Predict the structure.
Amino acid sequence: MITLGCPKNQVDSEAISARLVQCGYRTVAHPGGADFIIVNTCGFLEAARQEAIATLRTLVARRRPGQHVIAAGCLAQLWGAELARVVPGLDGIIGTHGWNDISQVLERLASRVAHRDTPVVQVSEVERPLPDPGVLRLNGRQPRVSAYLKIADGCSARCAFCLIPTIKGPARSRPRAVILREARELVDQGVRELILIAQDTTAYGCDLGEREGLATLIEEILQVVPELRWLRLMYAYPGRVSERLIEVMATHPQVCHYLDLPVQHGHSATLRRMRRPHDVAELIHCIERLRQAMPDIALRTSLIVGYPGETEEEFQALLDFMQTVRFDRVGVFSYSREPGTPAYELPGQLPEEVKQARYERAMQLQQSISWEHNQAQVGRQLEVLVEGANDGISVARSYRDAPEVDGFVLIQGEYPVGSWLNVRVTAATPYDLIAVTETSERESPVCTRAEI
């Protein structure tokens, strides 16, 4: 199983791998030893589509006799059978909601004797119910310290630049019983941190007529796994951050004082063209409410520069917005013109050199802001979760750091993966912290540089 794209794809890959193991298949570590190679693709941006196409073409070209290459996931859903024309020789194409039928697809492929046959295509309507693997996602795998827990799929926001509603369909919440069962199973397998994800986590329950679905779900998860140390929220829509959600985050110590809050821009006219909430004052008020309830909260956002029609005045307003809000973490992205989105047809498409220059200016500003935030951590005591160790150094994360997208806390001494440490921050870079161990609640170092 080869996974491309976002953490939500990673969750799908784990679920389908577990489903196939339950059906009698066995996972292998390298493509060369597999009878079936499944590539879970991303179709969100042109760069992601090109990566998926290149990966599939390479695998098809290197395929040995009797081996089958299957394109799955977002790009397979977006292009369907057309993907076979772009990647000649594909054996199967399975969309985002074809997971329930994957064992039957593999059986059909196994019965064929030649790759010249027309590929097996299983691309269903995106309105189909979400597949429920009903099995342990990490079964048979090395346990990780953190795991993503997908609570919904699809999106109903219809932002002008985004293909997700086309690929995934409208927002659909997973059943509470399924989520709670999966949370219990993951913690039983040794997972220390659960990270709630969806295209919009704050929309959880809206399709079911619930007003505070996410806040209620968090409390129910903590009842099911009271021993869980960290519960982290990602991808929260600013307009749905309610007072109840803030209260739940502030009052339950297991919930990390961290929120990924994609706002996309800081000028109201640009946000209108994006079909996003465009009341910038309300965005700032939402952030103020979060910081008032949790003064130590770490806030992350995503911003798009170079959007069609973005004037120098609008871009400067974005920089001013960044200075005013001073997010702890920011992912800056140059606008990507995606066919099939309303923004593709907008006038005022900007040259690549303008988008690149604005990207660099925004990144430079955020780097200075991030450095100041990290400098403020020097001298502070933090609890960290160890993710790895090598050459006398342990790599860990604090509550301020989400996996894969944020920085690390680097500690002298090699500590076991998954251990909790109390550390004191001694130095900072724009992205990472340097710390020394104060006390360890459960573990002692395996070895230190001095001992070596």
About this structure: Residues 225 and 252 are 13 Å apart (CA to CA). The first strand starts at residue 2 and ends at 3. The radius of gyration is 23 Å. Residues 440-452 have pLDDT under 50 and may be disordered.
